[in-house]
Amino acid sequence: MKDFIIYMQARKPDELTKEQYSVDELQSLPASSSLGELEKVEWGHLKLIRQSSLLNVFNFSCEFQLPKPKAVREDVYGNYECDIWQQRNGSIVASFDAPKKLSKVIFSLLSYATQGDPSLIRPIRLLRSDFLALKDHIMAKNGDLRQLILWELKDVPGEGAHIRQFRLSGSHLDRLVGFDELLKRARKVQLLGFGFKPVQECREIRFRIIDWGGGQLYTPSDPLDNEIFEFLELFNHTLIPGNQYDGNVSMI
Predict the structure, then answer these.
(1) How far apart are CA 9 and CA 11, in angstroms?
(2) How many alpha carbons fall within 13 Å on the CB side of residue 72?
(3) Eight-class DSSP state of 38
(4) Measured between alpha carbons, how far is 50 from 88 in angstroms, rounded to an integer?
(5) 3-class DSSP state for residue 47?
(6) CB distance 124 to 239 below 8 Å
(7) What Cα–Cα distance (Å) separates residue 144 from each residue in 41, 149, 174, 194?
(8) Is 50 helix (H, G, I), strand (E, B) or coil?
(9) Residues 205-243, buried b or exposed e (16+ Cβ, 10 A)?
(10) 106 burial type by CB count under 10 A (0-12 exposed, 13-18 middle, 19+ buried)
(11) Sign of CA dihedral 7, 13, 19, 23
(12) Mutual angle of helices 225-239 and 128-140, in 10-degree steps
C-alpha cells in the first residue's frame, strides 16, 4: 500500500533547465515566508529521475526536524524520501509516501522548478460533485465501488432518521438500490474506494480517495509509469472538465 496526495497545477510544466533543484532556492524567494515548514527542512533536493512524453518523475529527499523530547536540547532530524509524478499534458501531480507535513514544501519546490512560480501547484479538495463525477467515470470503465464514508445523512427513507456517519465496504456498492439517492442525502462525502482495470496493458488499480486530496493506493504495490498515468488521468478527466488526454499511452 502506498499513501498518496494529489495536487493540481495551474498549467502545463515548462521544460526543465536542470535536473536538480534545492530547497535553498525556494528559501531565497519572497513568497517562501508563508512556508513555515521550510524552517524544519535541511538538505532538501528535488531531482528529475526520468521523463517521458506524458510524465515527469521526480525524487524528493531531505532531513526534517522531528518533535524534540523534553530531555533533548539539540534538534533531532529524520531522513525523508518520496517520488512525485507530474503530468506533462494534464493538470494533476501526485506524491507517493510523502509525509503530509512536508507536502507544501515538496509541491512549492516542484512548482518553482517546473513553472517558475512556487504557488502554481495547489492542493485539491474534493466536493460531493467531484466524488460523483469520479464514481460515474470509473463505473463507465466497468469499475467496482468498494468503500464509502458519508457524513450527516438526513431524512433517510423508512423512519426519516438522521445518521451522523455512514460507513460501508464490500463489492459493487453502486448496485445497491437507492445508492445515488444516498449520496445526494449526505451533507459530505468523505471517502470513496474503487477498483478498476483501465487498459489491457495495466494491472488492476485499487485505491481510496479522501476529500482533502490524499488516500491510499492498494494495488499494484509496485506501479509502473503507465499505471500511474492512468491513475492520474482519472482525476485529470473528472476534476478538470475538458482536460482528458486523447491519445495512446506511450512512455517513450
Answers:
(1) 6
(2) 8
(3) G
(4) 12
(5) strand
(6) yes
(7) 41, 16, 8, 6
(8) strand
(9) bbbbbbbebbbebbebeebeebbbbbbbbbbbbbbeeeb
(10) buried
(11) negative
(12) 130
Sign of the CA dihedral running 243, 247, 249, 252: negative
Q: Answer for the pair 38, 105: CB distance below 8 angstroms, yes or no.
A: yes
* Rounded Cα–Cα distance for residues 167 and 184 (Å): 15
- 193 vs 124: CA distance, rounded Å: 17
Helices (H) and strands (E) in the chain, counts: 5, 12
Give the whole-angstrom CA distance, residue 141 versus residue 62. Answer: 39
CB distance 195 to 204 below 8 Å: yes
pLDDT (0 to 100) of residue 1: 87
Q: Which residue has the cell 432518521?
A: 161
Q: Which amino acid is at 207?
A: F
**Does the CA dihedral 143-149-152-157 come out positive or negative?**
positive
What pLDDT was estimated at residue 27?
85
CA distance linking residue 214 with residue 211, whole number of Å: 7
At 39, list the grid cell: 524552517
pLDDT along the chain (252 residues), means of 10: 93 91 89 77 94 95 83 81 95 92 91 93 91 91 91 70 84 84 85 88 92 95 93 89 40 29
Single pTM value for the model: 0.86
